[in-house]
Specification:
Blueprint (H helix, E strand, L loop, with lengths): L4 H7 L2 H21 L8 H16 L6 H32 L11 H17 L8 H12 L6 H4 L2 H13 L2
Helix pairs in contact: 1-6, 2-3, 2-6, 3-6, 4-5
Length: about 170
């Protein structure tokens, strides 16, 4: 539908998501450090921050979904009819008829059939939302990265480093 770039441009909001998430995480870290809150009680709010961040950025793009679905269905019908007509003509000329004087190898008919198949595949693989899973994942990652320092409340830095090295060295 030509709108796939919209999801990519929304990923440019990642620094904003990162900053907002960092501010929320700093508040939670202060609650854990000075307010006596347990980190385990903050898991749900932290997950909500990630989920809501992704939803907040990508939900407006869902307004395009009905039109994209309509365009995809129309394209499948048109390309499907064209492909059906072409493949029937191809079959009649090259498969059902007696061998022609024309050489099959190198004929433009084969390339046209392949091109038509590729065009149909593009229409068939068209997404009905103008963003991909990787766009959503990048936004979620931007919201989740500021939460990593909270691990220091559960595990001391030296223990995290030892565990990380053991994991890398497969010890």
């Amino acid at each position: 539908g030509g709108l796939g770039g919209l999801g990519v441009t929304h990923v440019n909001l990642s620094p904003l998501i990162f900053g907002l998430s960092g501010m929320a995480v700093a508040t939670y870290a202060e609650d854990v450090m000075f307010g006596g809150a347990k980190l385990a009680s903050l898991v749900l709010p932290l997950v909500e921050i990630v989920g809501l961040s992704v939803l907040l950025v990508l939900t407006p793009l869902l307004l395009f979904a009905p039109k994209l679905l309509q365009v995809k269905q129309r394209g499948l019908l048109k390309y499907g009819a064209l492909a059906s007509t072409y493949t029937q003509a191809f079959e009649a000329k090259w498969i059902k008829s007696t061998p022609a004087k024309e050489e099959l190898l190198g004929t433009a008919d084969l390339q046209s059939l392949a091109d038509l198949g590729n065009s149909f595949e593009v229409v068939a693989n068209m997404r009905i939302v103008p963003f991909s899973k990787s766009d959503a994942l990048l936004l979620g990652l931007a919201a989740g990265l500021p939460m990593l320092p909270l691990l220091l409340f559960v595990l001391p830095l030296d223990e995290l480093l030892v565990r990380g090295l053991k994991g890398l060295l497969n010890l």
